[in-house]
Every structure is written in C-alpha cells, then in structure tokens.
C-alpha cells in the first residue's frame, strides 16, 4: 500500500515506520514518558475523537439525504419549472408537501439515532495509555496522536502506532490483511517503501494483540489511520447483513417497476394531448408514491426501538443492522468456558504421574502460573488462588501461551538451576515429553503413557479440565523459546473444575424451541467437551480440530452438517467451522469472550460477546450481553424477530395498496378524460399515508410470527404483491366505475372520493395484512390503531375543510360516501378471504443448499477487506 501525498497531519505522519524512532516521536509530539492529561485533552478537542464513523449520517447531512433521491430531485426541478411558467400556487403546494415528507423522515431517523448513541455508550472498549506519568484506562475514542499506549494480549490496537518496546508481541492483523496468522512486532526499523505486512515496527488501528506485551506511540488516529482510509474507500460496499441485502433487492424490484410505469404513463398522457408539465408532474408524483422513501426512517426507527427494548434486557446492540439477522439466526455457535460453564475455575487436584496428590507438582504449577507475564486467565488464577507466600524461584524468561500451541512455558531459577516448566493441554504436553517422573525415578514416557491417558480420560469424563505439567533443566539458559519445549519430563497432571451452568440446559432448550440450534466449539479436549455438552443437553460425538484440519474447504460444509460439538480447535478452525455453516445457508451467531474468539466473532452473521470479555472480543462483537446469561439471548432473538416482522408490515403495504394505487391511477389515466388525481393530491396522499408508519415499531406481533427464524424473501414478496395488489386495484377500479360511469360525479368530487378510497385501501393493507389471523383476532398497538384512525379522520375531513379549495377537492354527496363504505366492507372481506388461500406472512425460513443468494456475500464481511 502506498501513501498518498497530501497535507496536514496525515502527511507529516506518512511512512511513520521509516527512519529512527526519536524522529518519529518528535513528529508525533510524543515523549517516552507519555502525554500530560492537559495536552491530551487539548489535542482531543482540536482533532476530535479517534473514530472512523463508518455510517450514521447526522444533522444536516441526514436532513439533506431525505431529498437527494433522483426521483425527488427531478420532481423538485420539474416543480420549479412549472412555477417558472406561471403555476405558482400549485408548485408551492407541491414543494410544501415534499418538504413535509422529508421533514417527517428526518425527524424519525434523527430521534432514532440519538437514542442509539446513548445506548452504545454503555459498552466501552478501553485503551491503556500513560498520562501524567501514570497508566490509565481511557476509551479508545479518546486516544490522541502522541499517546503512549501500553499493550497486552487481548488489547485492541487503538490507532496507528509506532512500536517503542516489544516483548514477544504478536498481533492479529487479519482485519486489514486477511492473513490468519499473527504477525510478530518489534522495534526494528522498516524501509519507507515496505509493504504493509512488512512494517514490523508499525501497529494498525483495528488489529489486536494476541500475545506478548509492548508499548507504542500513536502516530495517526481516526480517519487518518490506514483502517479509516480503507473503511472510507469502501464506504459504498454492498449491504452487509442478510436482511439489508434482502431490502436492497426489494428496492431494486420497485425501481424497475417504477421506471417502466413512469415512462409509460408520461407517454400515454402525451398521446392523449394532456398538458406536458402536468403530465410530467403527475408521472413523477406517482413514481414518488412507489419509491419506499420512508423505508430508511422505518428501518432506523424500528431498529432503534428494538435496540432500546433489548437494552431493557441488558443486551446492548453495537451494530444496529444485525438486529434482524439476530431474529433470523438459525445456529448459535458458542464457546464453552463462561457461557455453558460458570467460568469460575477452581484447581481440584495436583497429581503425580502415578495419580497421587503431589505437593511438588503444585509448587511447580505455581511457579509457572505465578511468574507468567502473559494475559490473565482463569486457569492461572485458579492455580494461584490461596497460594502461599512467594516461592523462592526467580523468573528468567517465558514462552507465553498461544492458542495454537496450547502450552505455556516459564524458565525460572529454581533451587539454583534454570528449569523450564511447561503446562498445557495434555495432548500437546505429551508431544514434547520423552520421559516421565514416577516416584524418584525418571522413566521413558512410553512406560507410563497408557496409564496417564486413562487417568486423563477418566478425569475429563467427570468434567475436569486437565492440564499436563512437564519440566526440563536447562543449564545456562537465559531465554526461553518454543523450540526449547522438547525432551521434557512429564511430572504430573493438574485437574480443574468449572461446573456447567445450572440454567444452560433450560436456555438451550428454549432456543431450540424457537428454531435455533446450539453448537459448541471449544479448544478444550474431547472428553471435557463431551461432558459439558451432555450436561447442558447437547448430544453427539465431538468433531476434533485435527479432523477439521484434514478436511478441505469444499468438503467442510458436508462434514460438519450433523456435528453438534467441536473440540480441540484453534481460533482459525473456529472461524472455518463458522464459515462452513454459513455456506450451508445457516444464519450463524457466535458467542465467545476470548482473544481466540475474535476471528469467529468477526466472521459471524451475529457476533455476540459479554461485557466482561477481553476488549478485542467486545470490539469484534455486534451484540454485547451485560450479564452472562443465556436466557437473555432467547429474549433478544424474539425482539429481533418482532423488529423484522414490523418492518415487513411496511413492505407489505407498499407492495399491495401503495403499489396498487399507482397501477390504478395509471389505468385510470387511460380510461378517464381527465387526470384521476392532481400531482399535489398524489403527493399529499403519499405524505398522509406515511403517518401511521411512525408508530409501526410499537406494534405487537402474533406469537406464531416470532416462533421461527425469519428472513426476507423476495419471492414471497412477489407472490404477495400479485395477490393483494390485484385486490387493491380491483377495489379502486370498482370505485372508479361507480363514481364515473354510474354516479357521473364532477371531476373534483371524483378526485376527493378517490383520494379517500386510496387512503382506505392503505389502512386496510396495514391493519388487515399485518397478521395471518382474521384481523379482529390480532390486536394492533394502541399507537398504530390511533394514528390509523387519525389518518382516516383527516382524509374524510379534508374535502369539507378550507384546504379543500387549494387542494382541488370537493365535498362528497351522501350517496358517494355510502358507496365507498360498502366497497370498503367488500374490500376487507376479499382480503380476509385471500388470506385463507395465500397467507400474507408465509412464516417460512429460507435455507438454501449452499447456493442461496442471501449468503453470496459471505466474503464481504465488515472489516474483512484486503489491503487494496
Ligand atoms: N494458561 C494456560 N496454561 C496452559 N494451558 C492452557 C492455559 N489456558 C488454556 N490452556 C490449554 O489450552 C486449551 C484451550 O484453551 P483455550 O482457552 O484456547 O480454548 P477455548 O476454546 O477458549 O476454550 P473454552 O471453550 O473452554 O473457552 C485448554 O483446554 C487448556 O488445555
Ligand atoms: Mg474461551
């Protein structure tokens, strides 16, 4: 990646990885002692928060965006043109209605955005920096150029930094580079023209520390960072969630229909020698009626309402657009420790190779756990719990724990000589041992191997987590590397207890009852995995990491089809399992809290973490649970489905009544000697019928609508459109026939009557088609019913009001009112009848056999872009 020339801070910090460190510190205005709190505060005020701002238009930009759709722009231009040639009043009315519609959308979206900002502030991702000479935790947003950042495993790299100090610092850069193996960082200089991956002394915003420790100085923040640059360059990337992709396809469908109608109606009107400007405005007004221009506001409002409802259950939604995918989730893949188990690990036994309790094993374990400098973890904490005052052993060096090797080695001076003490998953410890200590003797490992494995299996099957412990004396050693983990002597086993959560089984059953299957994926061994799985009601033989590794990508989806438990997997395999499930057409949620869960959290449709998780997991997650409680997940899923169901109601009105109205008007232009409605009436109708949508997010859903995972399905929308659109059109044309050919009403009465007719069909679509039940048996929310009635009242009153004159409406005679009322009853009956044959909400879950369009975007996850 090459740096673009420019000016300002970007330019000064360009190629900050090249050249001597002191120069870089000067450019950043940093010192090895960190910034003062005052200076940092000044910088923050001057340059703004360290944020990339992926989306979220606010203020003026949001307001403007309500008017920037091409069709609205053309309409405004045409109106201004009509005003120029004389029709001032008419034009002004049109502009007023367009402004009011835009204002309504803006107000809705704005309020929704504000509410969500407040919620999201409840989950904070921290950075540790040196301020005024002391280490403090601040929000990642508050880091400024020049800050000295302290980094440990599990930390998020808050901005682009230059390394000042590194101890076996390993960083996962997959977010930027896609490479799944961690990169080693050091203070070594990099050439100015080095590739991104070759800049060993640079750290990038958005990446995270996998192991080791270090310090680094912030060189670029926010949008000046490489991550910010990449993100803004791909700002127009395709919608990321399944639901968003569905909406996009629905939008395209409408645009296509609209284009045909627009041209058709305009041409027809011209052929019938109607005034050009009027015909143009009429066609444009119809086109506006067909574009679901309230959709962004509806979606924003219902998502924010959903997020607020979830917050009441202590579930914080960080990325709003996943709410619907949350409701669509078919598989929940979960980590073991702390989610299915209580996460409070206790050390229950330190055993010799012969299976006897052994103090020496306990002592060695404490040296290993107590002197390690890697990240804090429950196993080491359990070993140290209640430990005696410090052992005389002295730390020399360490080969820190990593998730692939699954071992932790500590080199210590114990009784005068350097000893390498290694503990880890038994399987991986045995790999590096060739002898074992039994009694006072050291014997070849093979002599005891079977006995050890039997004991290990028995302990694991009882639900213990078992580690192996091995030693090797290393005279004169001053460093420890993973290569030293060889020719070791097994000295014993450590058994830990971490009981399954008592509520897990019930929570899993509840999820299963609502169509979500839970699958377990863990780094722990197969026996322990099997035990915990059985305890929480998940059956099945575990599939092992080694089996996964041997399976090529193309065969993986079939291989994992029936597996419920995955054991002995490393972080990369967690992600592979997840991706394979998505390829199968599943909508996959991933629940995890460790550094090793970050890749899978990124790759999931719905990444879920907990507030106590490491920072990187919290950052990667789209949803954060404030309590480690599986039951709230089921609640959250219900809310996601309700949000989805309500959004679908809007789409349904749009595709039946609104769409039907447009077709009816197009047909009417051919049948009538005059325009069926004036352009301003079409726009007003459109504006007024938006009013009930402002309360749609409060609506109730029927229990059966929440019972299964839901996804948007363009095919069923098309069927729906055909059936219910036709009914609506038939009703409109029946009204037309009665008004024009039977009653022979004058033009303005006709328009007033049709205006009411159209509103009524929209209300029917909203109230009748919101449920598969008979409409009287499904109660709408008070707010929705209220705004619906308000809309009818306004529409019926309009022709009798002083506004009737400028709007071109006239009062209706009683006979016409009676006809419309009768038609309405027939219309409702027809819709109810159609519901028996073709339910408006088919409640199906679309799950393709791996080739289904909803998942073609599997590779384009947020954050998953290449180096460009
Ligand atoms: N601090 C440690 N020292 C030595 N070995 C460890 C340590 N932590 C974990 N291990 C070993 O590595 C294995 C994998 O643990 P890891 O935390 O990577 O898996 P995980 O998938 O997060 O597990 P879980 O599902 O239980 O959360 C453990 O079962 C254990 O054998
Ligand atoms: Mg874990």
From TrEMBL:
Please report the record's description of how this protein sits within the membrane: Multi-pass membrane protein
Q: Determine the domain of life of the protein's source.
A: Bacteria
List residues traversing the bilayer.
67-85, 91-107, 250-268, 280-305, 720-743, 749-769, 781-800, 812-830
> What EC number(s) does the entry state?
7.2.2.14
Q: What is its main location?
A: membrane
Cation-transporting P-type ATPase N-terminal domain ranges (all copies): 15-87
Q: Where in the cell is it found?
A: Cell inner membrane
What are the UniProt keywords, alphabetically?
A: ATP-binding, Cell inner membrane, Cell membrane, Magnesium, Membrane, Nucleotide-binding, Phosphoprotein, Translocase, Transmembrane, Transmembrane helix
The family note in this entry says: Belongs to the cation transport ATPase (P-type) (TC 3.A.3) family. Type IIIB subfamily.
Q: What does this protein do?
A: Mediates magnesium influx to the cytosol.
What name appears for this protein in its UniProt entry? Magnesium-transporting ATPase, P-type 1
Q: Which organism is it from?
A: Micromonospora rubida
């Amino acid at each position: 990646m090459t740096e673009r020339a420019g000016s300002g801070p970007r330019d000064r910090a360009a190629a900050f990885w090249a050249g001597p460190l002191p120069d870089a510190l000067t450019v950043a205005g940093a010192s090895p002692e960190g910034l003062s709190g005052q200076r940092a505060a000044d910088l923050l005020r001057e340059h703004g928060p360290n944020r990339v701002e992926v989306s979220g238009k606010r203020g003026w930009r949001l307001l403007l965006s309500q008017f920037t759709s091409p069709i609205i722009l053309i309409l405004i231009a045409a109106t201004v043109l009509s005003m120029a040639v004389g029709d001032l009043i008419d034009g002004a009315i049109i502009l007023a209605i367009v402004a009011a519609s835009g204002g309504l959308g803006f107000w809705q979206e704005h309020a929704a955005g504000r509410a969500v900002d407040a919620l999201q502030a409840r989950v904070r991702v921290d950075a540790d920096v040196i301020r005024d000479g002391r280490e403090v935790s601040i929000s990642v947003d508050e880091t400024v150029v020049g800050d000295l950042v302290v980094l440990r495993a599990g930390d998020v790299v808050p901005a682009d930094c230059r390394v000042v100090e590194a101890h076996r610092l390993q960083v996962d850069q997959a977010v930027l580079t896609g490479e799944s193996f961690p990169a080693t960082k050091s203070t070594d200089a990099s050439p100015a023209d080095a590739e991104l991956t070759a800049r060993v002394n640079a750290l990038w915003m958005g990446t995270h520390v996998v192991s080791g420790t270090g310090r680094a100085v912030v060189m670029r923040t926010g949008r000046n960072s490489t991550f910010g640059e990449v993100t803004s360059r791909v700002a127009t990337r395709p919608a990321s969630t399944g639901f968003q992709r569905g909406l996009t396809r629905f939008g395209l469908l409408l645009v296509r229909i609209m284009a045909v109608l627009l041209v058709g109606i305009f041409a027809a009107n011209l052929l019938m020698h109607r005034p050009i400007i009027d015909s143009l405005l009429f066609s444009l007004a119809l086109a506006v009626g067909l574009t679901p221009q309230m959709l962004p506001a509806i979606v924003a409002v219902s998502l924010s309402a959903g997020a607020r409802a979830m917050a009441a259950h202590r579930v914080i939604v960080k990325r709003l657009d996943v709410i619907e995918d949350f409701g669509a989730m078919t598989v929940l893949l979960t980590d073991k420790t702390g989610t299915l188990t209580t996460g409070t690990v206790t050390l229950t036994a330190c055993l010799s190779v012969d299976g006897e309790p052994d103090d020496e094993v306990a002592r060695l374990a404490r040296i290993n756990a107590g002197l390690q400098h890697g990240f804090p973890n429950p196993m080491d904490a359990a070993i140290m719990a209640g430990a005696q005052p410090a052992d005389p052993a002295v730390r020399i060096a360490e080969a820190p724990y990593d998730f692939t090797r699954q071992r932790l080695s500590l080199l210590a001076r114990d009784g005068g000589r350097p000893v390498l003490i290694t503990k880890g998953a038994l399987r991986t410890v045995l790999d590096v041992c060739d002898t074992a200590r039994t009694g006072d003797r050291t014997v070849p490992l093979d002599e005891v191997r079977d006995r050890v494995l039997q004991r290990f299996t028995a302990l694991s099957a009882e639900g213990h987590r078992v580690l192996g412990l091995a030693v090797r004396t290393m005279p004169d050693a001053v460093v420890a590397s993973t290569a030293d983990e060889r020719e070791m002597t097994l000295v014993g086993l450590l058994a830990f207890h971490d009981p399954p959560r008592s509520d897990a089984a019930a929570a899993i059953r509840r999820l299963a009852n609502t169509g979500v299957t839970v699958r377990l994926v863990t780094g722990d061994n197969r026996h322990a995995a099997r035990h915990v799985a059985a305890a929480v009601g998940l059956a099945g033989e575990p599939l092992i990491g080694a089996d996964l590794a041997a399976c090529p990508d193309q065969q993986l989806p079939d291989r994992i089809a029936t597996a419920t438990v995955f054991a002995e997997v490393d972080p990369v395999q967690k992600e592979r399992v997840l991706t394979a499930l998505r390829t199968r057409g599943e909508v996959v949620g991933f629940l995890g809290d460790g550094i090793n869960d970050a890749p899978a959290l990124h790759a999931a449709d719905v990444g879920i973490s907990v507030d106590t998780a490491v920072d990187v997991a919290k950052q990667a997650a789209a949803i954060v649970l404030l309590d480690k409680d599986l039951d709230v997940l089921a609640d959250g899923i219900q809310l996601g489905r309700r949000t989805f169901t309500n959004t679908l109601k809007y789409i349904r009105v749009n595709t039946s009544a609104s769409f039907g109205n447009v077709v009816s008007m197009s047909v009417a232009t051919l049948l009538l000697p005059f325009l069926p409605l004036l352009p301003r009436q079409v726009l007003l109708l459109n504006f007024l019928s938006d009013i009930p949508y402002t309360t749609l997010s409060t609506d109730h859903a029927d229990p059966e609508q929440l019972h299964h995972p839901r996804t948007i399905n363009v095919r069923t929308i098309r069927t729906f459109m055909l059936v219910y659109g036709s009914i609506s059109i038939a009703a409109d044309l029946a009204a037309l026939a009665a008004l024009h050919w039977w009653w022979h009403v004058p033009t303005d009465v006709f328009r007033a009557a049709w205006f009411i007719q159209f509103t009524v069909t929209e209300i029917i679509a909203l109230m009748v088609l919101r449920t598969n039940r008979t409409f009287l048996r499904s109660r709408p929310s008070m707010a929705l019913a209220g705004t619906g009635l308000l809309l009818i009242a306004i529409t019926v009153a309009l022709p009798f009001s002083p506004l009737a004159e400028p709007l071109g409406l006239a009062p209706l005679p009683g006979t016409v009112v009676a006809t419309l009322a009768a038609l309405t009853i027939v219309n409702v009956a027809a819709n109810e009848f159609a519901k028996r044959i073709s339910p408006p909400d088919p409640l199906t879950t679309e799950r393709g056999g791996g080739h289904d369009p909803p998942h073609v975007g599997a590779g384009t996850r947020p954050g998953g872009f290449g180096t460009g």
